Amino acid sequence: MVPKEDIPAIVRAVIGEMFSVDTARIDRATTATDIDGWDSLAHTVLMVRLERRLGMPISERIAAKASSVGELIDLLSMESATGG
Amino acid sequence: MHAPSWLSGNPITLNSRAWRKPKEHPETSETSCNLLARLRDHAAHSKLKPFLVISGGGLIRQYSYGDAWLEARRWAQILRQAGVLRGDRVFIALKHRQEIYFCFLGAMWLGAVPTIIPFPTPKQDPAIYWAEYTTMFAHVEPRAFVTYADNIAPVRAALAGQPCALIDVDVPAVAYAETPPDGDPPLAETGDIALLQFSSGTTGLRKGVMLSHRQIARHMEAYTRAITFEARDTVASWLPLYHDMGLVACFLMPLHAGATVISLDAFEWVARPWTLLEAIETYRASVTWLPNFAFHHIMRTLPEERTFKLGSMRAFINCSEPCKPDTVEQFAATMRAHGVSREQMQVCYGMAETVFAVSQTPLGAAPRILTVDRQLLEASQRIRRVDAADAHGQGFLSCGKIIGDLEVRIAPPDDGLDAPHDRPREDRAGEVEVRGGHLFSGYFRNETASKAAMVDGWYRTGDVGFIHDGELFICGRTKELLIIHGRNYYAHDLEVIASGVEHVKPGRAVAFSLEDASSGSEEAVVLVETELTAPGEHRALQRAVKAAILDRMELMVRSVIVVAPGSLVKTTSGKFSRAQNKARHLAGQTAEA
Question: Which residues in chain A touch residue B561, judged by CB atoms under 8 angstroms apart?
């Protein structure tokens, strides 16, 4: 599992790679509708890639609940702190 | 007489005819055409055999053929109490739950005409969602509408005072209604319309494909023969039942044959695609039908640490959106360690208007891939085989041989090279036309659309294809249709919604689709003209257009591209050209504002 402080950068990097977007364009307020191609199928693929990169399981609750990149980072950080 | 207490709103008078002892129903040889008669026979001969294993929300429920018969009878009773008679339309809008199956069969039992429609997703506003159905409800006049609490008020509003029984599936009087001990109502007759399947669309009238019991039975006989589908088969499926492939291949055909269905929740499958593989392994499933994108979704999310035993599968059948040769090759290679071979990969071509299947590749052999000269195909619709490695080659996947007594012809392209009434030679591409056996009877209460769909007794599919060595290949389409994740959307509908969004110049939007190799499907792109100039305003506009289309079409558009007024290309007749705007977009020439 990666250190908690690395999570924001990793999340932005994985989103940037997956949707071919400059990470400078991804901030906490970014939502799925701001990123071309981020639909429900892509969201599942994104969660799988994040699980592998972060080395931690991501529950369906988190996957479904996060409505922005910032919220996703916060939820993953909390999950990481409690050991998943 | 009072309406039952569980009827919610607009109760209709109970009709005494519904309670009268049924007239004698002659046991003709054609009763085998009736799906309920098939269910009755399976219930009598294989009472304990599982018909349905349905999983969702962490629960798994199993219904034998005996259970299914009783549940169908219970629903026939519930609907009859609501006043449903032979020929009446019954709408079903339910999430993944067993009642979809049994309510559907209960309606069919009465000779009523069930239709399953999608429900609003959590991202959609139910009020906006159901308001879209107002025109359709007025046209189709449903007698009963079976749904759950969230939809009752907005559906009632959309029904606009029509006499239709709204049945809340969770109200105890419905949920626990008992199976009547006697007096089975008569089974529907073979010539009766058995069901309606509605096309997608918002701005135009949705077209309801009418299918009779006889047409469905003919289809089942032809298609079960084509894939040697038998009672010993087990179908694993996540497909929703409002989709023709989910309804026919994964519900009605197993019912016809006395086989077993393992049914997963589509939403859960999207989030956890490997659950289909778990279901195949657990229940030793033998057949599944998947749109092309689903193969990619499974591959892209395959758990690294697990191996699934998929050797029980006779066929992974790719259907309902353009099937790609690469998908077949990649899936067979990726899944080899899980027991999948190229011979299990199969292709079907079908549509609601032919109940489902038109053609099918023969099981037991890998589907044929034909590489043809792309330039010659584009220039003159002619097919010339080239080497698979040819720089100008494009591979097409065979959709197999035509099933049953359907006939397919390729309409000659209108270029004078083929005589107008001649069938073109093999290896000439043109619009695929179908007639015979299990072709539909027309669109419900829509003579204009029914006539427009036919030419000289042939149904115009809107797909472009060719025949080579007796096998059908699909290579394009004539309709302005986007097929995304197995569902059809009309470009015109997306454009109308987009141009209705504030700050989009009215009528100045163009929609088209692009192929996306990673998802294995098409993706929607919408170009909109606006006077807004600030980047922040553009971002807000893109969000608003995406949200509007998502709300009304349940489609997440890949890109909304904001362009300056006057940027969109028009044809000489003054209409926006989707093809030209798409070509400019692909060439990087779209002038983003």
Answer: none
